[in-house]
Amino acid sequence: MGHEDFSLIGASRTDAGVSCIGGYVQVFLREKVDMSTLLPQFNAHLPQDIRLNSVLEVATDFNLIHSVTEKTYRYYFTNSQSFNPFASAFMVNLPGELNWGAMKEACKLFTGIHDFKGFCKPSENKTDYKREVLSADIFTSKEFLGQFFPEEIFYFEITGTGFLHHQVRMMMSVVWQIGSQEMELAEITSRFDFPERFEKLPPAPSNGLVLWETLLTNL
Length: 219
Known about the structure:
CATH class of the largest domain: Alpha Beta
Radius of gyration: 20 Å
Number of strands: 9
CATH topology of the largest domain: Alpha-Beta Plaits
Mean pLDDT: 92
Order of helices and strands: EEEHHEEHEEEHHE
Structural class: alpha+beta
Number of helices: 5
CATH architecture of the largest domain: 2-Layer Sandwich
């Protein structure tokens, strides 16, 4: 199948190095195909680090981007003093003492509708930086087992109706700075109110971030 025979759009755009478990892509085909053979054909031609779980035929007027109602991201990290480099493809290590209570308080401050201009990479063409975060918290992970992984692994999980460029990675960076006492909790609310008064935040590395789930309507 040549490139002129199809086009596609994705439900999300992720930075290089970010993984995706729960995402969607909409493919527009010029000709009707046998749906029962489409999934194995796709996976046979995709690189080994990409795999489709299922395919579904939709109406011609279905709009994937407009159907997205919620997205959930997970950022995996650890607090190990003997981190194995082989685990670095899946998570980021944050050595040193952390204030876990303050980190959880920071997560609570993110929930609700806020102006996240101070927590993203602004664009010259964008004027609306208000986004709604439905939930945000830190949990213990059981997804990674084996000799290369630390005993304790955590993830920052955040669910919202939509996210800005680098938003989740910068929020993770803020949570870490709160935990290591490099930033006060009050700065979060100040950044909501006066984003121009603060320096740009460094985004957390991309390799710990996973688009975990995407919820759609009209499907």
